[in-house]
Each structure stands twice: as C-alpha cells, then as structure tokens.
Amino acid sequence: MDSSQTTFYKNTFECSHQGALWLQGSSKCNILDNVMKGNGKTHIQVSHRADPNVTGNSLLNGKGGGVVVHDEGKGLFERNIIKGNEQAGIGLIDRSKSVFIQNQIEGNGGGGAAIDGQSAPIFESNVFRQNLAHGICISGVSQPFMIYNHVSNHDGSGILVQDAAVPLLQQNKIESNTQGGIIATGTSKPSIHQCTIYSGEHTSQPLGLLCRDNARIEMEENNIWGHPSCNVIFRDSSIGKMSSNEVSNGQCGGVIVQGEACVSLVHNTIKANGICNVGVLESGCINCHHNSILESSGCGILLLGDGDCECKFNMVTGNKSIGIRCSGTSHPVLTHNRISNTSNGCGVLVGGRSKAALRYNLIFDNAESGLAVRDKSKPEIYMNIVVPKLNSHPGTLYLSGSSNAKVNGNTFIITTPADLRITQKNKSLLTANSILEYQEFPDIVDEARKILEVMQVKHVVVRGPDPDEPFVLGRTNPQNTAAEEKDVSAKSRTSARKHVSRTEEDVPCRRVTDSNASLSRTGESSNVSADIASGLFVVRYCFLMLAPTSFDSSQEFEPSLDPTSWGAKQRLRRASNGPRANGRLQRKTNTKCLLPSVALPT
C-alpha cells in the first residue's frame, strides 16, 4: 500500500483464487526470487504510482496474466520468467511507465505484451517467444521504446502496431512469426531503426513488414531478408519513408507499394528478391533515389500502376529479366539512373500504355536491348546514353508494336547496324540523336563513369574532331525515299562516312555513300509511320568532352522551341541551304553544325 517498502524474498504464491500481489499507492516494495504459479488472476498488479523492484521471479501458469501495470503505475521488472499464463504475459494500460529488462516472456495465451492507453514503457533485452497471439501488441496512443529485444515464433505477428500508437523500435531481432514480422495499421506512426527482421530457420515468417490503412512508418538502417512472400509491403493509404535499409532475398519481392500508398526510398540496398526488387502496383507512388537495386531473379524495378513515380540517381544492375519495366498505365519519370548488366533481358522495357519519361540515364551492357519500347506505350526518351553488350542484337534500341515514342537528343552506341531496330508499324519519332560505333569508341562507359565522379559536371558533349564540321549525315525524308534510293545507287564514289538504313525485314544494314550522303531507308513500304524527322545522326571518330552547365536536375526537360535551340538551328540551316537536287538536300561547305549535349547521371 502507500509508502510501503516491504521485501518479498524467495516465497511461493500458488493456486490462489486471486492474484499473488497487488501493489498500489507510492509503495516501493522489493519482490525478489519468488515463485508464483497457478493463481486465479494476474500474479502481480501495479497501480496508482506504485514503483516496485521486481527481480528474478517466476510467474507461471496463471488463470490471468503475468504482470499488469495500470493507473500511472511504474516499476522495474528485471530477469523474470513469465510463462504459460492464459492471458498476456505483460499488460500495460492507462499512463503506466514501467521498465522491463532481460525478462523471458514465453507461451502466454494472450500474447507476450499488450501495451495500450497512454503508456510509455521501456523494454530492453527481453525475449518474447512462442506466445499464442502476437508477440507484442501496441495500441491506443501509447509510446513505448523497445531496444535489443528478440521476438520470435508467435502465432500472430511479431509486433502489431495499431490505433494511433507511436512506438520507437530500435535494434530488435524479429523472426519466425506466423503472420509476419511487424504489422502497422490504423493511424499508427512507428519508427523502426537498426532492426533485423527475417523469416527464421524454417521460413515460417511470411513477410517482414506490412504497413496498411493510414499508418505512417519510418525505417532506417534495418536488415530485412529471406521471407517467402515479400519483405516489405505498403498498401491502402499508408505512407512510408525508408532510408539506408538492406532488403534482400524475398521470394516474391523486396519492397511492394500498392493501393494508394506513398513511399520514399532513399539510399537503400534492395537485392536478390524474387519477382522484383521494387514493385509499384495500382495507384501506388514512390520517390526512389540513390538506391542500389541489384540481382533480382526478375525485374529490378517494376512499375505497373498509374500513381506518380520518380526514380533518379539509382544504380540498377545485375537483375535477371529486366532492369526497369514500365507497363500498364504507368507514367514514371526515370532520370540520372545507371542501368546495366541485366543477364537475360532488357535494360529498360516500356510497354502497355505507359507514358514513361526517360532522361539523362546511362544504360549499358544488358543481355538484350538497352532500351525496348513496345505495345501502345508513349514514352518520352531524352538525352540518354545507351551502350550495347557485345554480341547481343538488337543491343541498343528496339522500337516495336504500335508504340509512339519521342526519342530526342540521345546517344546510341552500336557494334553492328542490327543494334538498332524499328519495326514496320511503329509510330515513334526520332530527332537529333547521335550514333557512335563501339569499335571506334570502346571506352565510353569507363569515360562516363569517370565523369560521374565529378559531381559538378552533369553534361557530356559529343563532337567530331573538327567542331566546325563534325561527321554528321543529313535527315530522312520519307516522301523522297525513291529519289534518295536512285541517287545513292547512281553514285560510284565511296567515303569513310556510313549511315544506318532499315531493310524489309526491319533489320538495319550499313551502306557506303558519298560525303554528302543522306540517311536513306531501303526496301520499306510507304505505310511505315516511323519518321526519323530531323536528324538521326551517325557520328564517327568522336570523343567525350566535359561541358560546364547550369542544368538543374530537378527541372524537367522539354524540347525547346526557342530559335536558338539546337533543333531550331538545324531546321534554319536546312532551310537556308536552298532547293533539293535529285531529291536530296545539298549541304554547303563550312556549315556549322553542333551536336546536342548529353547528360549523365551523377
């Protein structure tokens, strides 16, 4: 009772119809090394500002719970065994502020610990194991702090956070729980730092973390791995912030965002997950930047929904089927990413009705096309560098189906003409792109990587040996295909300059023309709608050169209609060169022609 300081030492409290002890008032009793078992109600109750020291006791097989603290009760509970009780091992309600250190809470019918009301307890270095419900249930507006705890083998989840609870979970180990590691629901706001969440020896924990309803979760420096379902799932209208986590070896996925959930992924390593490392479905939204997305047996990043998605400054490498896939009605913005070494597929695949925007990406060494566009998609592809893997064709660009891409200002590296392929019914518009031969520029990826190390430099200028007269071929005019064909066939002169054309089978081939040659298309029917409108360029003997710029990566790129823009200069130059002869535009000597700048990810 009030102000009591009684010591209970090595007693046995057994089979009472009531509990063993009820401490209240301002009592500060010492309860040491006692055995309490088979009692009809909770073994120890603490209430009304009581502050006992409860150490080394065994609280076993009670009809109620092991410990209940309520009505502003406190107390230090250390090295106790709380086992086999029909209700929760520990119950905390109202404004309780107890401290639990190195306790063993095992096999209790109502779960390991139930924390409710406005409680603010501290749990440190406890073991929660094989309780029949959840390991720890946190609800109300409670604010517990939990550190160094081990939570495993429960019939429910390891930790359930619900209502408006705001727990801080730090450096806990959570494994082998039947319904999942951590589940956040309601309007809860858990913070999870430096925890290890994994499936366990027998992969009995299906998922690592589930955030649903309107919960908001912050995760930092956690290690989440090995779950037979997904490692992390956000759904409904939940909001998440993940930074510096490692998420790996989920059999179905790494981080999945669905419903109307919104998630920020920053500086994470997400690797070796099954279907995808990062997946966005339905109306989910992500802001994904500065992550390492590695070694998935499926896709690195899978974007299928219609939510707002931005992926920038990520390293997407070593994934098996596709580096980044955009499909459905997605409209993501992909900027300044490095996408490489896809072992069995494309670097980037845009399909369905996606309206993806790809800007300033470096795409290289993928098993199939660096960039593939198909179905009825309408992507905008600006200022990217695409480098093929040797002996993979088409290794650089493949435009198929009824896709209607806008491809502008990119640099495409080719090993053979077959690295560029555009099918007959494709509707894409290609303007102001540069094409380099890999044989004469084998170090482009290494040079690009070096430039990436210079953070203040964001652009690379691709030029010929003479800036005033770069090796540039003219434009294709579909209406003059026959005249161009006739003119080229009539010429007997040859030159080191070559250009790319498309055959009846839509496989590009290389032809030799004179120094004023136009880019011609041979053997194609008149209904082909792909229009290489104002300059699909072939450039040889080129080098990379740093260019100072005030470009802001946060600004969106749009084709410029300014009279001083590069595309406008090309149109003005062609207009000023006078009439065509033999169906082909004649070039004046000493005409100045600048190639577009190409930005690289930093």
Structural write-up:
By secondary structure, this protein is mainly β. The protein is 5% helix and 37% strand. The protein is built from three helices and 62 strands. Residues 452-602 have low confidence and may be disordered.
List keywords for this structure.
mainly beta, elongated, 602 residues
Quick description:
The chain is about 5% helix and about 35% strand.
Distance between the termini: 67 Å
Major sheet: 20 strands, parallel
Taking all Cα atoms into account, the compactness measure Rg is 33 Å
Strand content: 35-45%
What would you call the shape? elongated
Write the layout of secondary structure elements.
Elements: E1 7-9, E2 12-14, E3 21-23, E4 30-32, E5 35-37, E6 44-46, E7 53-55, E8 58-60, E9 67-69, E10 76-78, E11 81-83, E12 90-92, E13 99-101, E14 104-106, E15 113-115, E16 122-124, E17 127-129, E18 136-138, E19 145-147, E20 150-152, E21 157-161, E22 168-170, E23 173-175, E24 180-184, E25 191-193, E26 196-198, E27 209-211, E28 216-220, E29 223-225, E30 230-234, E31 239-243, E32 246-248, E33 253-257, E34 262-266, E35 269-271, E36 276-280, E37 285-289, E38 292-294, E39 299-303, E40 309-312, E41 315-317, E42 322-326, E43 333-335, E44 338-340, E45 346-350, E46 357-359, E47 362-364, E48 371-373, E49 380-382, E50 385-387, E51 397-399, E52 406-408, E53 411-414, E54 420-422, E55 429-431, E56 433-437, H1 444-452, E57 459-463, H2 481-490, E58 498-502, E59 508-512, E60 536-539, E61 543-546, H3 566-576, E62 597-599
Parallel strand pairs: 1-4, 2-5, 3-6, 4-7, 5-8, 6-9, 7-10, 8-11, 9-12, 10-13, 11-14, 12-15, 13-16, 14-17, 15-18, 16-19, 17-20, 18-21, 19-22, 20-23, 21-24, 22-25, 23-26, 24-27, 25-28, 26-29, 27-30, 28-31, 29-32, 30-33, 31-34, 32-35, 33-36, 34-37, 35-38, 36-39, 37-40, 38-41, 39-42, 40-43, ...
Antiparallel strand pairs: 57-61, 57-62, 58-59
